[in-house]
Amino acid sequence: MQTIINERIAQLRLLLEEYTLGGWIINGTDAHQSEYVAPRWGSRAWISGFTGSAGSVLITATEALLWVDSRYFLQAEEQIAGTEFVLMKIDTPGYPDMNSYIKENITECRWVGIAAETLTISGKATIEAALGKAVELVPIDDLLDTIWTDRPPVPSSKVIQVPDDLAGFSASQKLTMIRAALSQHGADWTIISSLDDIAWLTNLRGDDVPYNPVFYSYALVGREAAWLFTDPGRFSAETAAQLASSFTIKGYEELSAVLNEVIKADDRIYLNPERTSVQVAEAMESNRYVTGRDFTADLKASKNETELEGMRRAHLLDGVALVNFLAKLDTRGGRYTEIEIAGLLAHERERSPEYLGPSFGPISGWAEHGALPHYSATEESNATVRGDGLLVLDTGGHYLSGMTDVTRTILFGEPTEEQQIDYTLVLKGNLALARARFPEGTCGYQLDVLARQFLWQEGRTYHHGTGHGIGFRLNVHEGPQSISPKPLVVPLKKGMVISDEPGLYRAGKHGIRIENVVAVQEDGTGEFGTFLSFEVLTICPFERTLIMKELLSEAEVAMVDAYHRWVSEELKELVDEAALPYLEAATSPL
Amino acid sequence: MQTIINERIAQLRLLLEEYTLGGWIINGTDAHQSEYVAPRWGSRAWISGFTGSAGSVLITATEALLWVDSRYFLQAEEQIAGTEFVLMKIDTPGYPDMNSYIKENITECRWVGIAAETLTISGKATIEAALGKAVELVPIDDLLDTIWTDRPPVPSSKVIQVPDDLAGFSASQKLTMIRAALSQHGADWTIISSLDDIAWLTNLRGDDVPYNPVFYSYALVGREAAWLFTDPGRFSAETAAQLASSFTIKGYEELSAVLNEVIKADDRIYLNPERTSVQVAEAMESNRYVTGRDFTADLKASKNETELEGMRRAHLLDGVALVNFLAKLDTRGGRYTEIEIAGLLAHERERSPEYLGPSFGPISGWAEHGALPHYSATEESNATVRGDGLLVLDTGGHYLSGMTDVTRTILFGEPTEEQQIDYTLVLKGNLALARARFPEGTCGYQLDVLARQFLWQEGRTYHHGTGHGIGFRLNVHEGPQSISPKPLVVPLKKGMVISDEPGLYRAGKHGIRIENVVAVQEDGTGEFGTFLSFEVLTICPFERTLIMKELLSEAEVAMVDAYHRWVSEELKELVDEAALPYLEAATSPL
Fold it and tell me: I need a labelling partner for B159 at 20 to 30 A (CA). Which of A94, A339, A503, B361 fits?
């Protein structure tokens, strides 16, 4: 492998020479800034052998450099060992960032290339500002296309329709909303690159990447006409016919030609510069941009009543699977592996005919593995679960009517007092956020402390956000809203669905996370305006054996009891008869 | 007056013609971006007759325009009536903002002037970005100097020293800190324009503007030398002699000449572009800036142990005055005016030999006036305080050893249930913020909701920040920290002093605000890092007759009782004997 990597570097250097470039940047994204990319865009791994989810590569005439953040220092070091690659540690003294490195070191042939399809308009501005006049950034067609002879094609999985009666609005109705927004913003066109936005707009779902049911495509919407750029061969005849009333379908690679043809020099184009590539920008005669989040981002974030009803149903089905799973799990004398346990839960989900598959890779972390918030068990790490300890189980499913994401921390054997206190403090935070009421206009960052306050009071904290937006039969991480210490100015709005997942992680010992999904609902209007609050969607008992009741206020005890009563009511007619004793015990009053 | 205003406009227009300018901007700030400006910089009021604290003027060949925000729509309308001025309502449909107006309307003579001393480096960049290439912004000497023949001079009140044993560090020690920061940031010089920063650095206090004990000046600090630019005649011989060991004193207007002389073309200058004027920038041969908050801003924000000890003493003396005042106030049958009541409290403060004067204009708002958070009683508005109702009394004092800012809501007669509930919810917020514990790195915006949560839960809220930084014998509004929904990324640090002042305002009925001053303290270090919490400095009973005890948790009752116990302990040996019965009753357990 090391030899192959070094050969690829050498081939790329020949191209640098041919194109008179002092360097080539590979940022490892796709043309849509997706969280998960299809193998075609696995260019960082192809050139370097490094398989992490983030990192930047720079190849110059003499150097091959890989910048990664601290999560990946060890993994990157191992994976590039024996190759020409040198590890550059991000945010670490002694290591310049990539732009500074370029500025200081590329002093002869002062042009640095990058694949134009992977560079956003904002990204270009940022790099150019950093480079100043020292070096010119040159976005062009991807040089790797020439040397990566077996590069996978743009994926083209079959695409299915979400029926209008599940989506709430037809694609044609959604186009009307987009056109109203265009008109409101004084724009003639909008280009959408973000794949989940296109899936929402078209009521279509694909299978081009794991977990996220998106399909590689672009959408172009004008006041009168709309195009969808994706392999036409992926539609059934029926879907193609239905779609034809709203969109003209063109091939994925025909975007540039159509942009070039239909957009006039003085047209105004609404686009998100953080999602739109310079390749797209360069295909248009006009650069009269109106910039902002994609219209679809806000429309899709606030779920309509039909979508919410579907989300409720998905959570009900998920609750059945969770309780059937928990009832069978032998936490007193059982012996499992982390992967086995995730499989057992997946198996229960699969019993529902409405289940479509996991919404993300399961996190099943036993004991000290639970203290790694983003742990993913591999065959090598796969720990044996038995005896006393905590298991963090963070999983989710796609269903016909919606999507789930749920974390429960499960006790095996006997708890320690520290585990009980930690769990109860995390639970108090989860409850405090869930019961929050707040005026319209409130942003997630304003509520974040509600979930942390009890931990903080005891000198404990966790280092991840408290909540991420959740898609409807779409991506498990969906913007624009979040609940986090990061001051993202996005007000929470009616219909937004978001996770409530405080945690606590003691390195080498145990992890705790309690995650429910909640939906923003209206909660009264009066002298001080309209207020909002959360409706809890997740239906699954908390781990009562980890709750230290004396740490809960009366109101908190009542809240847990009311939640458990509701869980029991919702599920008791639906779970296996064999699961009823567990359900009853797990949901009886504290 | 209307005629005079129109004459001034006409005179300015003659100058526009002479200087070939299409317009002249007056932003109404001084050369230091002070919150309160000396009369010399009252240029907005001089040209327009509008006396509000914020607004922008644009004079063109044909138009005279005044932009104000919604607080001032009515006042501005009245004050400019009968003049050529046209009111432009900020953030109101139908009214372009000033930059847009200029861009669209100044199409012939496309240069717009502004007094260079009132325009910051950042302000210039912002306006220029908005104007694009349409119109050029021309910062020059203030044209008003020519026509404002009786323009007041730069003030030159006597300056006094804060003794080193009250300041904690001598000016020379503070210079050493600045030089360490210069070195750390790789800069050769720093220019300080912010007046309270200079007062802090030099341990000097003036009386150039009301309430804020600052003196008009600039400071220039290099690796070896330092200058203070202010009227040398304002120092006593002793102060001048002491100062001479650290600073070279030059006249206020000599800054440009010295900058021009000492700063070399490749020197690096650390400055705050939001506080430094383009006049200053243009006086230097180098524009190799290192930008950021003034070093002094962060150093001054975190009070040292001596300053904190002084702040505690100031709050003790203030508590004595408050309790003596409250004991004498007849809230059952008395009859006062709002101004009288503020005077009575001021009188009690004046009994302390260490009292120097008010730290801001008192807010004494009876009944519906209390619902105006920034109400200031005038002879016309001065309401009679008698019968049943609430008085919001927000005042503060400068003392030799520190400064106070305290708000109490005082019940006259009998409360309504609504008043009691409102008060108790505000109190719960005040207590929740005061008892917060949080990890190092936490910013004020993360804590803000703690003070709002109980109001929100009941569908109520308030529309101002929860806390502002407080100076040590300096400005009552001091940056950089705050506690507010606005996401200002400034971590709270040990020694920072900040207000805790949630409120509730029912238009036409009553206002409630409860303000204590708190200081950030260290509160333990463990597995999850170092935690901080607040020490309450304000020593004054809450209004127990407004507390609805059944709305408080046991922990809150205990917290109020503990606070009152402490207030009683601190004050009982110091207040008038006649005040003891009040103190005892006001601080007895709930």
Answer: B361
What φ, ψ does residue B107 adopt, rounded to 5°? -110, -10
Residue A1 confidence (pLDDT) above 90? no
Give the nearest partner residue to A447 out of B442, B449, B531, using CB atoms: B449
In the predicted structure, residue B2 carries a pLDDT above the cut 90: no
Confidence of residue B389 (pLDDT cuts 50, 70, 90): very high
Cβ contact A456–B445 (<8 Å) = no
A528 to B457: CB separation less than 8 angstroms, yes or no: no
pLDDT of residue A71: 86
Chain B contacts to A (CB-CB under 8 A): 436-439, 442-443, 445-450, 453, 456-457, 459-461, 485, 487, 489, 506, 524, 526-529, 531, 553
Gap between the Cα atoms of A510 and A392, Å rounded: 9
| Total residues found in chain A within this entry | 590
Q: Residue A97 has which token pair? A: 């960032």
User: Which H or E run includes A540?
Assistant: none
Q: What is the DSSP letter of A534?
A: E
SS (H, E, C) A275-318: CCEHHHHHCCCCCEEEECCCHHHHHHHECCHHHHHHHHHHHHHH
Distance CA B93, CA A133 (A): 42
pLDDT at A78: 94
Q: Predicted confidence band at B134 (pLDDT cuts at 50, 70, 90)?
A: confident
CB within 8 Å: A445 and B446: yes
Specify the pLDDT at position B236. Answer: 95
Of A445, A456, A531, the CB nearest to B445: A445
| Closest-CA residue of chain B to A531 | B459
Is the CB of A453 less than 8 angstroms away from the CB of B461? Answer: no
Mean pLDDT of chain B: 96
Residue type (1 letter), A506: R
Residue B133: band (very low, low, confident or very high) from pLDDT cuts 50, 70, 90? confident
| A330 to A325, A346, A385, A413, B168: CA distances (angstroms) | 10, 17, 11, 10, 65
Q: Which residues pair with B366 in a beta bridge?
A: B391
Contact B107, B62 (CB under 8 A): no
Of all residues in chain A, what percent carry a pLDDT higher than 70?
Answer: 100
